[in-house]
Amino acid sequence: MTVTVGIDQMGFYTPHLYLDMTALAQARGDDPAKYHVGIGQDKQAVIPPTQDVVTMAANAAAQILTPADQKTIKMVLFGTESGVDNSKATAVYLAHLLDLPADTRAIEIKQACYGATAGLQFAADYVRSHPTAKVLVIGADIARYGLRTAGEVTQGGGAVAMLVTANPRILALDPVSSYHTADVMDFWRPLGRSEALVDGKYSTNVYLDFFRTVWTDYQAQTHRTIADFAAFAFHIPFTKMGRKALRQILPEATPDQQTALTAAFEASQLDNRNVGNLYTGSLYLSLLSLLRHGNLQPGDRIGCYSYGSGAEGEFYSGRLQPDYRAGFNDAAVTALLAKRRAVSVAEYEELFQQQLDLTGTDVQLPVGTDPAPYYLAGRQHQQRQYRHRSEA
User: Fold this and answer.
1) What would the 3-class secondary structure string for 248-259 be?
2) Coiled-coil segments, which residues (predicted)?
3) Average pLDDT in the chain
4) For 319-339, what is the mean pLDDT?
């Protein structure tokens, strides 16, 4: 008997600070339209030193997990390229913060922005053979290119948490996917660097080429066409990138279908426009934005394109379930985004420099200014000090 497996719940977290792209454009001597239209970004999450990928993942997961869920989680798969240790997995820190059972596998997955998708597919395979188990999949990152760099406008950060189960409430994954890997130097972060190196135009071209490759292969495997899809969600480090990918395949659709797919894309990029780049979480914030803002119906098939520089791409699909809106807390996400505080460019630059450095020196952080339930209190003896407000 085939077990239906997929995404049962989704949670999202980004810190309480953001930078308006008009302010950044003016400070850098650029036309704001270059950022709002040319790149497709309106706001960018600003990450205080009291937040890292572990705390953001915990805050996202806490949005969805019940005590009953915690007891049945058998695996944590943490996709990130912003890990906090070269040996110990972010998933281990997270499992402890969430008080998950000791008989839980906890693994970190790294392949640029693709890591969370690998985690989702590994989780689905596990649940197919262990139908009573639940797997927590995380996509969390802090996108850093440096002040006054070409990539500065595509920074951001946050975390998406997904609970993968049998008989999911949100999205039942189709069993077929298509993936493609090549050794490409379009984006990388050498050891010892906190900011990435990127060849932006080249990376965009590779992203588009990979999308065409996996889309064509997916069609050959499934014999499906664009007419079988109600919407597509893309990895969008900046929203204009996903728009370019969609435009590659829109000519395959009828005029009415093109209108519907374009409207669905607009819904899928709304939240990303106001958060920025999540690296591994980018596709999944796009999917959540589509669920929150799109005109979708149960049974609709959604296509998802994941891309991680270096490079690996995957296209997969799933069917929207009847009770999909019960799988995420729409009001909580709306409130989270609405309650953020705008920072000036000067504040943003100061906070950018306050991230924990690589020296390993002891430090205490200004935790009183961070309203999040989970936060980073500092570092002692080269060990990060994670806290929950109920324990403070």
Assistant:
1) HHHHHCCHHHHH
2) none
3) 96
4) 98
Per-residue pLDDT at 194: 86
The CB density around residue 173, as the number of other CB atoms within 10 Å, is 23
Scanning the structure block, which residue is given the tokens 């008080």?
Answer: 99
pLDDT in tens, 335-346: 999 999 999 999
Identify the helix (H) or strand (E) that includes residue 298: none
Q: Which of 81, 108, 152, 314 is catalytic?
A: 81
Q: Which is nearest to 172 in space by CA: 216, 127, 111, 105?
A: 127
Per residue in 34-71, pLDDT (tens digit) is: 999 999 999 999 999 999 999 999 999 999 999 999 99
**Residue 45 pairs with which residues in a beta bridge?**
18
Which amino acid is residue 297, in one-letter code?
Answer: Q
Q: What angle do CA 215, 216, 217 make, to 5 degrees?
A: 90
User: Using 50, 70 and 90 to split pLDDT, how confident is the model at 392?
Assistant: low
**Residue in the structure block whose two tokens are 């058998």:** 74
Q: Class of 174-321 per CATH?
A: alpha beta
**Could you state, in order of their start, the residue ranges of all structural domains in the chain?**
5-171+328-391, 174-321
Q: In angstroms, rounded to a whole number, what is the distance separating the alpha carbons of residues 391 and 295?
A: 42
Please list the residues that pair with 313 across neighbouring strands: 180, 307
Taking a C-beta distance cutoff of 8 angstroms, is the pair 236, 286 a contact? yes
Q: Which tokens hold the place of 219?
A: 């069609």
> Quick one: 5-171+328-391 is in which CATH superfamily?
Thiolase/Chalcone synthase (3.40.47.10)
156: left (phi over 0), alpha (psi -120 to 50) or beta: left
Q: Quick check: is 235 catalytic?
A: yes
- Average pLDDT on 233-255 reads 97
How many DSSP H helices and E strands does the chain contain? 13, 17
What SS3 class is residue 192? coil
User: Catalytic residue at 195?
Assistant: no
Tokens for 147?
């002040």
Q: Which of 108, 152, 235, 312 is catalytic?
A: 235
State how far the Cα of 108 lies from the Cα of 122, in Å rounded to an integer: 12
pLDDT confidence bin for 1, thresholds 50/70/90: low
pTM: 0.97
Q: What percent of the chain has pLDDT over 90?
A: 95
Q: Is residue 304 annotated as part of the catalytic site, yes or no? A: no
Q: At 108, is the secondary structure helix, strand, or coil?
A: strand
* Contact yes or no for 168/327 (Cβ under 8 A): yes
Catalytic residue among 108, 113, 312, 314: 113
Alpha helix segments (H runs only) across 146-232:
200-222
